[in-house]
């Protein structure tokens, strides 16, 4: 999750690099959100969920299995002499070390799997529905015309 700052050149630089990574690591979801808006609207959730509480913006948040496992302010991923551009190798290494980069997408069965309790509910709903009603047709006098009301 990239908590971006629209006024930050480093944020723009990271967006471009994450687009490159998304092509290479198709099994990884790359998400971006306006950092100021996200933290303002969900400040209490951010304090509970993010590993270090409210991060400095812009920031990169690594999420694995639905849990935020690490945050990194972009200033730690930029060139010391040029804070406007990220160091691609630093971003890649940080994500790789956290084991959140996956080249292969999950199997389709894993994404579209219907749990047994969902299948049972669908079967029950299909069986207990009301019987279908016959439609009434308007007889206009033209042979073969069957307009419904």
Q: What is the distance, rounded to the nearest whole angstrom, between the alpha carbons of the first and last residues?
A: 52 Å
The averaged pLDDT comes out at 82
Helix content: 25-40%
**How many H/I helices?**
6
- Main beta-sheet annotation: 4 strands, mixed
Q: How many whole angstroms does the radius of gyration measure? A: 26 Å
What topology emerges from the helices and strands here?
Layout: E1 2-4, H1 9-24, E2 32-34, H2 35-41, H3 43-49, E3 59-64, E4 67-73, H4 88-97, H5 108-112, H6 116-128, E5 137-138, E6 147-148
Give structural notes.
The structure is a single chain. The protein is an alpha+beta fold and about 150 residues long. Helix content is about 40%, strand content about 15%. It has helices at about 10-25, 35-40, 45-50, 90-95, 110, 115-130, and strands spanning about 1-5, 30-35, 60-65, 65-75, 135-140, 145-149. The strands form two sheets. It has a four-stranded mixed β-sheet. Helix 1 (about 10-25) links the parallel strand 1 and strand 2. Helix 2 (about 35-40) packs across helix 3. It is elongated. It starts with a strand and ends with a strand. About 15% of the residues are buried. The mean pLDDT is about 80.
């Amino acid at each position: 999750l990239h908590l971006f700052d629209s006024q930050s050149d480093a944020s723009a630089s990271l967006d471009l690099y994450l687009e490159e990574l998304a092509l290479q690591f198709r099994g990884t979801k790359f998400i971006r959100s306006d950092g100021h808006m996200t933290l303002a609207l969900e400040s209490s959730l951010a304090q509970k969920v993010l590993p270090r509480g409210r991060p400095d913006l812009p920031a990169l948040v690594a999420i694995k299995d639905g849990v935020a496992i690490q945050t990194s302010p972009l200033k730690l991923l930029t060139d010391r002499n040029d804070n406007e551009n990220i160091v691609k190798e630093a971003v890649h290494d940080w994500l790789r070390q956290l084991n959140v980069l996956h080249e292969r997408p999950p199997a389709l069965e894993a994404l579209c799997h219907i749990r047994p309790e969902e299948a049972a509910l669908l079967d029950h709903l299909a069986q207990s529905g009301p019987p279908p009603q016959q439609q009434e047709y308007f007889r206009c006098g033209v042979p073969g015309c069957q307009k419904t009301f």
